[in-house]
Design goal:
The longest helix is centred in the middle third of the chain and has 5 residues. Helix content is 4%, strand content 44%. Strands 1, 2, 3, 6, 7, 8, 9 and 10 form an 8-stranded antiparallel β-sheet that branches. A hairpin with a 2-residue loop joins strand 1 and strand 2. It is mainly β.
Amino acid sequence: MAVKVLTNALVTINAVDLSTKSNSVTLNYEIDSVEVTAFGGASHKFSGGLQNNSVEIEMLQDFAASLTEATVFPLVGTQTTLILRADSGVVSVTNPTYTLTDCYLAAHTPIAGGVGELMMSSLSFTGGTLVKTTA
């Protein structure tokens, strides 16, 4: 079985490739469990409900035009689209693209860090519809 070391991920936020400004990404794909247990049942039964997705991204802060701050700041309180891949190379069965549309960004911390530390921005996107493509 092959294993994967994450070294060249693709992180696109609102159609802007911010891969070179990202150093951590976590995509959580979840379907709500909706209880459908009826009277007379001997155990709980569940059915899939709505998608309940989230993405955590650690960004290197950069105030240059078209980079971290310019892209992220106007997205707070809005919905956007993220495109993520484990490797920025060609999309394939072994390198699928995950597109999360209409995900919501509630907050952004433009300035964070201590003396002599790298300025970072932690982003948490929630909701949206996730589609996986392999071609």
